[in-house]
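re: ur question from earlier - yeah i can do the single chain one, its not a big deal. heres the input i used so u can compare w yours
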Amino acid sequence: MIVPVISDPGTGRSIYYSKSNLLELAAMSYWLSVGLSKVFVERDRVEGVILLPENLFYNTTAPGVVILLNRLKPLNRKGEFLLINAADYFVKGDPKNILTQEGIKAVDEVYRNWETREKLSKVVKLEELREADYNLSPSQFVDVSDKVVHRSIEDILTDLAVAPDF
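and the output i got, formated as tokens:
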């Protein structure tokens, strides 16, 4: 079920949240990737999307998604969208995972400061979303994995040439 959590006509802000079954999550996923998101993005109504950790809710193990809508975005945020990937901010619980206070604080900070933070958030411009076919999925833009550093072939061959034989 996609539920409006907060809707304030005076500020133009709405927050929608999904803790859904698979069919509703598929619809939400379609909305985030190509469907209605194009209309909302082009009209600059989306303020941000927060991807929550998996297995937080009893009716699904899928991650929750929070969509922040604002029809009266401040001028300094026009044409910008904050995508937050909070998928790693949880502790294992029994039987469900628990969103950490550290995660709640980090999401609050990047939203209030409207900032890109490595492994957590990215402020993207309208043109970037157009190039990504209006895909608003935070995991598309925010990589939470550890980077693997590869050595050049030349360095490896040099090390092998001087390595002692066993």
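The first helix runs from residue 22 to 33. not sure if urs matches, ping me
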